Amino acid sequence: MDARFGPFRVLARIARGAMGETFVAERAGPAGVVHRECLKRIFAEDSHRPDWIAMFQHEARIAAGLRHQNIVALRDFGVEGGIWWQSLDLVDGTDLRTVLADFRQSGAGVPLPIEVVLHIVAEIAKALAYVHVQCGADGRPLGLVHRDVTPSNILLSYRGEVRLSDFGIAKVTESERTRTDRMKGKESYISPEHALGDGVDGRADLFALGVVMFELLTGERPYDGENRNQTMLNGVRGKRTCDLRASAPKGTPEAVLGIVEKLIASDREKRYPSAEALLDDVTAWAIPAGMVRLLGTTVRACRPEVVVPREGTLSEADVKAMARR
């Protein structure tokens, strides 16, 4: 089946989230040039919600100003039939959540060698180092915080590239906080200061990255409780539900464990002061070039490359849904 949405020929669905859905799409350019992109759009049934539209527009405004090799770039932005959409770089691969889930289901244990874990952490740290120092038109730092550094927002390509996506809840610190600001983000990765409603800065993103690193090394998360509130309370109190040293692969260097411990400290004053400082410690390790290739091989094993046929792969129901706008 084939479907059209504005300037796009929609080929296949990538994913559905709480706020919208993403597709592999093609857009024709001059002289027969065809661009394959990731089309992200709000659900048609939610296109009348001003709060969702505002968040979607906010994400686009932030993403439009970010250009970094470890960040998924925004290509275009618009509205079609009342439905807001974004066009993003298409990352051929999958997300880190899928890799972790695949290994859990297979019973293979911890999915990646320590060197690959360090590579992923270093690449996301580079993205955060760039984001955290962004300035406004007046030259002053924006204090931008991603606030949703989670495995589902870390994209991995078949070539071993690592890119941070989804700035839907990214926010400028302090100056934009209001009494109506709601808790956003996934509870396992929410920093204690965020859970308490205090102001957040780049160290909140570093905490989240630390939880991701902990999960990559152990297959578990450090503060998970029986429910959302208990998980966040454990983080605030520094109460671990998984022991890092007992669960990490045998022979994991103490220096690597120390990086994780520093990242997930409940007291943000004990964490790395910046992503640059984290990079100093991570890049002190000589990560073999072959680790990038190994990561690509792992991604391909979790999600084999799919060749989208010219006629597309949308079901008839998908096509009808796309037409409702």
Describe the biggest sheet? Answer: 6 strands, antiparallel
> SSE string, helix = H, strand = E?
EEEEHEEEHHEEEEHHHHHHHH
Strand order of the largest sheet: 1-2-3-4-6-5
Distance between the termini: 18 Å
Beta-strand percent range: 15-25%
Approximately how much helix is present in the residues? 25-40%
Number of helices: 11
Number of DSSP strand runs? 11
Count of all domains: 2
Counting helices, strands and paired strands, the structural category is alpha+beta
CATH class category label of the largest domain: Mainly Alpha
Q: Which term fits the overall shape?
A: globular
What is the residue-averaged pLDDT?
A: 86
Radius of gyration (CA) equals 20 Å
CATH topology of the largest domain: Transferase(Phosphotransferase), domain 1
Low-confidence stretches: 174-183
